[in-house]
Task: structure prediction
Amino acid sequence: MKKDIKKIVLAYSGGLDTSIIIPWLKDNYPGCEVIAVCADVGQGKETDGLEEKAIKTGASKLYIEDLRKEFIEDYVFPTMQAGAKYENQYLLGTSFARPIIAKRIVEIARAEGADAIAHGCTGKGNDQVRFELTIKAFAPDMEIIAPWRVWDIKSRDEEIDYAIAKNVPLNITRETNYSKDKNIWHLSHEGLDLEDPANEPMYDKILEMGVSPEQAPDKATYVTISFEKGVPVAIDGEKLGAIELLEKLNALGGANGIGIVDMVENRLVGMKSRGVYETPGGTILYAAHEALETLTLDRDTMHTKQMLSGKFADLVYFGQWFTPVREALTAFVDKTQEVVTGEVKLKLYKGNCILASVTSPYSLYDEDIATFEADQVYDQADATGFINLFGLPLKVKAALDAKKNKE
Result:
């Protein structure tokens, strides 16, 4: 542990981890100045009162950076356009928030002339990798301090004990001490009873962005989303900015029990972890975007994109946003989105996003060809030659196998 560090910029949320890190840094780096940085990516009221709390616990000042618009437009939408879902379920809510936060922290650390950047990620989690890969991408010479990897605190109970000893105000109790991460895209829940996958989540106690499907209305809600080149731009004909659009979809989805995922995932560090995710607006956007692509993308482009979406999800989950391969995949996705323009109507009902209609000026669907009725544009006899050629390798192999069996 270097002792000549005099100015530290801390990634600060005001939660349990980062709140106790301020006094810990002051104790372990005597005479150091701690500058807290809170990135607002849509966590709402969680930023209320943070400045007073940060300064009272030892920070010299607090930056609160509103990154919501950039977060949605430059990180969320490109990931949604890629169709990226980690392990085919997780819509990457925490994952793609970390690169933009860490990038801004590096910028402030440079401007402040800081000697080091500190974060509150645990040594068991994915976020330590996401933060530090971004720091290495923009400030490879910057010292990184990760208290969880060096201090004597081993549990969240011990964190609470430390907070009490240092007079750090807490807004949790030992009984409600879930590990949560919230932004405008999602809310995650981990820990306590959720650590055992045999326990059914207590949705009536943990859900914050919406209700369970059982509590959703008995009547369906219809919503129409307009896209321009893969970007959602309007709801029910009303043009909206990125923040307003996602907030509206969150409200609609939450009210109808949309976007609740309970999964056991494979963390980057190797262990399995159980979490409950709320992503109401994001789930609606994914469903609508995927439906529009079925109409506008040709078969080979769609199938190639579906293969690459898993790789894109892995890169985001593993914190590899600022890498050449992620940039290359985004360039491919951007090209595919040139024709993803149109409208998708969904029926939201008790946790389900049901497709009602989809239209596009770039539609590749030709009713004259697809019809089961009589048509003049498709000669069904052509299929004979196609099947003969397509099946020729099978026919040749079968003939050779039969010949060998006779010998």
